[in-house]
Design goal:
This protein has 337 residues and is mainly α. Helices cover 53% and strands 5% of the residues. The protein has 16 helices and 4 strands. It is elongated. InterPro entries: HD/PDEase_dom (IPR003607), HD_GYP_dom (IPR037522). This is HD domain-containing protein. It comes from Maridesulfovibrio ferrireducens.
């Protein structure tokens, strides 16, 4: 027992099991928890089955379970990690209080949760749905604010197949990783405010907002686009920019990501034909990351390009900021190892 009267977890136990907290328990269905539950028996020093999925807990056992959790005696198996990930993805703020999760497991939960929220929002891009997505993005920024290097674990879990939501999650995560690398000294010196970090994070995840107004049959077309279809696609940065007012998202960081992610250093991008330093740093990061993340996923009209090769290709393309592409290349080489 520790100083607070709770059981001290035996060495090695957390390699196979999560010790759950009262907050986690309360997030479960009261009568039918979504995964098997185990009890640590102190007298014999072993884990034993307490509840199996499919059973129904009585009111008496619910009260007993609550007390056992308070004593630190209740666990769930890490073999049920996939179930645990999907469960906590619906209540993402739990990752901030569950001290038994490993960094890699938290990264899995973030990717699951943010992909789910992005999918919901892109299916219905209205303020009420945005509120849930924004809440989860703020959980992400709070998690990273304590240690920005945590982004590395998320960046190793990019989706391999394309959808609008998956692409946005990939771009958001990798964009943050690149921004953090570029601004490393600014984070150390605390020159970046939390509000700025919150808004640029949202901007990177929402950069393709305007694509929600492009019909899916055009976005996912397996054959070359017609001139008319291409013109519709090219309007999505402006469409997204116009949507920001209706969603009450008129922040300069978000605007830059949405309106500038198809601008190019040589002035041959769109929609404003900006060039060089006319494009904000956030815009330049989004531009390179958006293209790279498209290249490394399986899309309806083409196969994925191996990450190191894609990073090499984009670093040799003068249309993109070399300061950004060098970090993309470094990231791709790190992931390969």
């Amino acid at each position: 027992m520790n100083a607070k009267g709770k059981m001290s977890v035996p060495e090695g136990l957390n390699e196979e099991f999560y010790q759950i907290t009262a907050d986690i328990l309360q997030s479960f269905n009261k009568f039918r928890p979504p995964l098997d539950i185990f009890l640590f028996k102190e007298d014999i020093g072993r884990i034993a089955s307490y509840y199996k999925v499919g059973e129904r807990l009585s009111k008496e056992r619910i009260e007993e379970l609550s007390g056992l959790v308070q004593e630190g005696l209740i666990f769930v198996s890490r073999a049920d990690h996939a179930v645990y990930v999907k469960h906590i993805a619906y209540q993402l703020d739990l990752v901030l209080i569950d001290r038994n999760l490993k960094e890699s497991e938290i990264a899995d939960i973030f990717i699951e949760a943010l992909t789910m929220r992005m999918t919901e929002f892109f299916d219905q891009p209205i303020a009420a749905v945005l509120e849930k997505l924004w809440s989860d993005l703020m959980v992400l920024t709070e998690y990273l604010w304590d240690d920005v290097h945590r982004i590395k674990a998320l960046a190793k879990r990019l989706h391999k197949e394309h959808s609008l939501a998956k692409h946005s999650v990939n771009s958001g995560v990798l964009g943050l990783a690149i921004f953090i690398r570029i601004k490393a000294d600014s984070f150390v010196k605390k020159e970046i405010t939390r509000n700025h970090f919150n808004r640029l994070t949202a901007g990177m995840f929402l950069h393709d907002l305007g694509m929600t107004k492009i019909p899916a049959f055009i976005r996912e077309k397996p054959k070359p686009l017609t001139t008319d279809e291409r013109n519709k696609i090219d309007k999505h940065p402006l469409i997204g920019y116009e949507m920001l007012s209706k969603l009450d998202l008129k922040y300069k960081e978000i605007e830059a990501c949405v309106i500038e992610h198809h601008e190019r250093l040589n002035g041959k991008g769109y929609p404003q034909k900006k060039s060089g330093k006319e494009i904000t740093q956030l815009g330049r990061i989004c531009a390179a990351v958006d293209s790279y993340c498209s290249m490394i996923t399986i899309r309806p009209y083409t196969e994925a390009i191996e990450p190191v090769k894609a990073a090499s290709m984009i670093s040799q393309d003068a249309k993109y900021d070399p300061e950004v592409t060098k970090y993309i290349q470094a990231w791709a080489l790190t992931v390969k190892k």
